Amino acid sequence: MANAHKSVLYGMIAALAAVLGVVVAVTLSQPRGTAELQSGTLLPQPRALPAFTLTDQDGQPFTAASLAGRWTLLFPGFTYCPDVCPTTLALLKQVKAGLGPEQPLHVVFLSVDPERDTPARLKSYIAQFDPAFVGVTVGEPQLADVTRALGIAYAKVPGASPESYQMDHSASMILLNPQGQIVAYLTPPFEAGRLVADLKPLVAP
Questions:
Q1: Which cystines does this chain contain (predicted)?
Q2: Would you list which residues are annotated within the binding site for Cu cation?
Q3: Cα–Cα distance, 110 to 143 (Å, whole number)
Q4: Which of 63, 55, 61, 90 is nearest to 75 (CA)?
Q5: Rounded Cα distance, 183 and 201, in Å
Q6: CA angle at residue 88 from 81 to 43, to 5 degrees?
Q7: How many CA atoms within 13 Å lie on the side-chain side of 134?
Q8: Can you tell me the distance from the alpha carbon of 76 to that of 153, in angstroms, rounded to the nearest whole number?
Q9: Can you give the residue ranges of every domain in the chain?
Q10: Rounded to an integer, what is the distance from CA 68 to the centroid of its chain?
Q11: Helix 84-99 and helix 192-203: axis angle, to 10°?
């Protein structure tokens, strides 16, 4: 059991180090004059994603085409999360309202727990926050490929029983433009007012 815990710990440290390296590299590469965000880091150039196919809460394919034409804020998590995920989704409801209907924001909740987060469970879960939110899932190894491209780290943490495990994961949110490219990483701690102030000029029509 000790070796299993060490493997999870080492894997999580390695994944987080990789994500931190991306953020640091982006920060150092930002040219002078680049707009600054209160809530995170704006990339100097949008970063394209490789092709992917996920499944949404209605059991339908979710691909790069699903991101086209609108600004998207993507947040990784899982429905059995006891604190960070529900708190962040509730916050995103406030942010969406703060931006108003003139600046619609597409919110996507990416599950890092495909073993338990079925499309039906995702649909029931996200409806508690906003029925317009989208929940997506995909099994391994595709999940690892997608999260790597997004700069998301996650690791399974064993519990007292095989069913009671938790998922450690990045708490950052990812902003994608209407072309489906990554333009910013938003990092905690989050505050609705600061997020709205950061997002308004970026997602303005």
A1: 81-85
A2: 81, 85, 169
A3: 10
A4: 90
A5: 13
A6: 115
A7: 19
A8: 9
A9: 2-203
A10: 17
A11: 50
| pLDDT score for 35 | 58
Whole-number pLDDT of residue 36: 78
Rounded CA separation 186/205 (Å): 21
Alpha helices for 30-83 (secondary structure H)? none
Binding site members = 81, 85, 169
Q: What is the CATH number of domain 2-203?
A: 3.40.30.10
Rounded to 5 degrees, φ, ψ at 56 are -90, 180
Tell me the mean pLDDT per 10 residues along the chain, length 205: 44 46 39 65 95 98 96 97 95 96 94 98 97 97 97 95 93 96 96 96 89
HSE toward the beta carbon, residue 118, CA cutoff 13 A: 2
150 Cα distance to chain centroid = 8
Residues 22, 123 contacting (CB under 8 angstroms): no
Please give the backbone phi and psi of residue 148, each rounded to the nearest 5 degrees, phi first: -65, -45
Tell the burial category of 85 from Cβ atoms under 10 Å away from its Cβ (0-12, 13-18, 19+): buried
Alpha carbons 164 and 127: distance in angstroms, whole number? 24
pLDDT value of position 173: 97
